[in-house]
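Hi V.,

You were right to ask for the full record rather than a summary. Here it is.
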Amino acid sequence: MAPRKRSRHGLGFLCCFGGSDLPEINLRDTHPLQYMEFSGPIPNPEELNVRFAELVDELDLTDKNREAVFALPPEKKWQIYCSKKKEQEDPNKLATSWPDYYIDRINSMAAMQSLYAFDEEETEMRNQVVEDLKTALRTQPMRFVTRFIELEGLTCLLNFLRSMDHATCESRIHTSLIGCIKALMNNSQGRAHVLAQPEAISTIAQSLRTENSKTKVAVLEILGAVCLVPGGHKKVLQAMLHYQVYAAERTRFQTLLNELDRSLGRYRDEVNLKTAIMSFINAVLNAGAGEDNLEFRLHLRYEFLMLGIQPVIDKLRQHENAILDKHLDFFEMVRNEDDLELARRFDMVHIDTKSASQMFELIHKKLKHTEAYPCLLSVLHHCLQMPYKRNGGYFQQWQLLDRILQQIVLQDERGVDPDLAPLENFNVKNIVNMLINENEVKQWRDQAEKFRKEHAELVSRLERKERECETKTLEKEEMMRTLNKMKDKLARESQELRQARGQVAELVAQLSEISERVPGTVWNEIDDTQVFRILDLEDFEKMFSAYQRHQKELGSTEDIYLASRKVKELSVIDGRRAQNCIILLSKLKLSNEEIRQAVLKMDEQEDLAKDMLEQLLKFVPEKSDIDLLEEHKHEIERMARADRFLYEMSRIDHYQQRLQALFFKKKFQERLAEAKPKVEAILLASRELIRSKRLARMLEVILAIGNFMNKGQRGGAYGFRVASLNKIADTKSSIDRNISLLHYLIMILEKHFPDILNMPSELQHLPEAAKVNLAELEKEVGNLRRGLRAVEVELEYQKRQVREPNDKFVPVMSDFITVSSFSFSELEDQLNEARAKFSKALTHFGEHDSKMQPDEFFGIFDTFLQAFSEARQDLETMRRRKEEEERRARMEAMLKEQRERERWQRQRKAQAGSSLEEGGEFDDLVSALRSGEVFDKDLCKLKRSRKRSGSQALEATRERAINRLNY
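Predicted structure:
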């Protein structure tokens, strides 16, 4: 187009022009894309691919298009590359090859539109500028789009859209501006930039107010495609709410329904617009939250139905356009499927949502026999009280109720609304939880008061019965075990007696075969010379060459006895002791007579817990107390509570001995259960140490290493003290101080003796045995022995006395002594066996001359095993760290190589340009939406589902008809 000059003198203020005269700018591309002759020889394939890749990267092509371009033969690639190179060097294109030019022109156009009226030729020139920008955004290299974004080009376009006057709004410039935004969104970077702008989609939606059908179609195509983009659906809904306010609509989507129903008089334009509207409606209904949320689709579709879309759809069928009919079919099929799904929830075939009576009947039927039915009645009752007269605010109150129900239905569990929330800070989940808590509190508060008094009594009775049953069951089981063990013991001792005679002769014969080395020990069984054939002695000598290792006691405050006595109360017991006794009695919650009967019956009903018995033993009447109380026995009614309790307990024969026997009986099984595992730990740990082949093999390796370190292969040691095991970890390598002799030992075992690494599995009882203090264990066993003897003495005494009718001491304690004596003798036998086995273990490891206790002896091995496991972990960590360092080194080398390659590519890319015209993925999305292809898969699925559901519905209708006839 030939340049023209303007004579108006008012344009000198525009910064983009040098003065009143416009510069001569060639707006049309006089050099369209064409294949040029080769500008040089074709480079080698590797260099050609690098150059061509730089060219393709500038185009931001989809994966499919990239594959197609890269599949071209080398000659075509070089021809395209040379063509683009020639195009970049064209001096006539320098002005329009940068976005700065277009941004300045559009800004000036926006500023001038309110100052001057332009003729047709000037309007055409302005439109051409915008069209050229649209073409540039589609065809220019990637750097053009990037710079356009950096220079706030999108803001420039949006500001122009907001400030357009009526003439510009109805012109082709408006359509071209929307086309520029669409072209920008055809690029992934540009699309992300548009979606990131808070007001961009809303500003685009404002363009629906124009009368230009092509502009409306372009806007609807953008909005429909944005619905299908992740994160875009909610932005479109927000934009439609914004348009409702902007266009003063009574309700959302009102303009769209009006346009859908209006006739333009031009068939092609009318069909295109109505197709765009229906494709947008289908996208907004079925994309985003509508993809898998039935409630959302029903909610949003109801808006369109209330606006009268169904009669309009029936009317649109008259156009007989295949693409439009495809969108209409999809709308109706999805609607029918959703209506069927909703009807299934109420066991119906169809629900007439226009009939208030039918909907009420369904809700009434669903809730009639549920706890929610009173709430339904309350809702209806309060609806009756809502205002009905056409005065101020009546409509808004009903609207508020409608919006609250919408939000309750739509809001998900996280409090997120798929549609724009009509009510701010309205979190349905939080409110429902508050109501649930309120109802639960009210319900349980009523029941709590009812059950509170019964609860304490029932729990107390239940606990007593449970304790009684548990005690009887344990006694029965213990007695049966005791009888069985007595039988086994008799048979075993008879067998052992016969074997003992034969062993005496064998022991005498063995005495003559004592070795000069370390007889009777593990060292007599191992030969360290075998290990030397396996060890890498040079490596060991290098690794471990010789080196030199360089409260103030606070007194308690005196308690004050504050309990006031009654005027006529008689008390002869010490005040503090009496107060403590009263506290104990209040905890027992038993009368003096109930306590007396419990002591006589040996707590048959388990009224006295073990801790209470222990406390009662602290308040046994002393001789001085008894003497004082006897002097006032004629005044028993005046006695204080503690005094009377002590007096009545003193009337029981041998009260203290009875209590002690009862307490010993209750605690016996518990004390026995604590002692047995300790004895068994010593016994089993001793056996494991003696029998462990892996341990013996490891000691052989350690002995060989020790002999070599001291005197070479001819070291003369036949063994070592077990305490030396824990010194292995202290010997550090002279090469790497992080490596100890223990680490090296494990490396040897992993390489030559991997089976030894499983040694800890053979010594599982060492940790428990290392905790046992034999002196304390023997003391506890002695206490049990003395306790049993004391019970036997008391039992003999009670047998000689005349018993009261309820006195059950003799039968109960006789049974107890019978069972417990055998259990205790079994414990003593185990303890003796454990001592013998422990002594044998000491001898086995050459420690017979030491005075080691089990906790010390087993503790040595336990500590060694812990250090052994930690050293294995250390080695594993070292290996992983080494592997990680090697992997990191490889990655760094790869990254360095990649950075070098990318740097070289960037250098090559700076010399290359691109203006290949390719369709973008956003265009593909718009095209698929326009043609309805985006819904094809769902449409086929709905058709198949409709056939199945139709036959099922017909069958269900027949069954219901038969049922009604039978009824």
